[in-house]
Design a protein that fits this description.
It is built from one helix and ten strands, in the order βββαβββββββ. The chain is mainly beta. It has one domain: Beta Complex (Metal Binding Protein, Guanine Nucleotide Exchange Factor, Chain A), CATH 2.170.150. Strands 6-7-8-9-4-3-10 form a seven-stranded mixed beta sheet. 26% of the residues are buried.
């Protein structure tokens, strides 16, 4: 599936070819801290299928909490939008794109969840909460 996306301010833009079956939710405590919320939704793309069209992301080298592996976290230096993660080094094999940055995000449904032991217990109750179509 051809996808494209950008940061919130538009300074960074990219395109890729993604398999929607790789979309997942991560509940790890690192993702919770970095996003400032309960989880992160990702889709993986091979590096050969990812093209940066505009701008240059800032990068933060994160050491994962449990394994100690190094992961690059890329984000817009202007607006702070998280864009992707990848293995450390100059030629990562893949990019884990943040689904919220994609124009096609409505077409990508998570197929699995990771680190469910860290999932917030109230997530199972979201469907029962009252909702509004727009903010208050």
């Amino acid at each position: 599936m051809k996808i494209d996306g950008s940061c919130h301010c538009g300074a960074i833009a990219f395109e890729a070819e993604a398999d929607p079956a790789t979309a997942s939710i991560c509940h790890c405590t690192d993702c919770q801290a970095i996003t400032g919320t309960a989880f992160r939704v990702n889709v993986s793309v091979p590096a050969a299928q990812f093209t940066l069209l505009k701008g240059e992301p800032a990068r933060y080298l994160k050491t994962t909490a449990e394994s100690g592996n190094k992961r690059v976290q890329a984000f817009c230096p202007n607006c702070g939008t998280q864009l992707y993660a990848s293995a450390a080094g100059d030629n990562p094999p893949a990019y884990t794109l943040r689904v919220g940055t994609l124009r096609q995000r409505e077409q990508i449904t998570p197929k699995s969840q990771n680190w469910t032991r860290s999932a917030r217990p109230w997530l199972a109750e979201l469907a029962a909460l009252p909702g509004r179509e727009k903010g208050a």
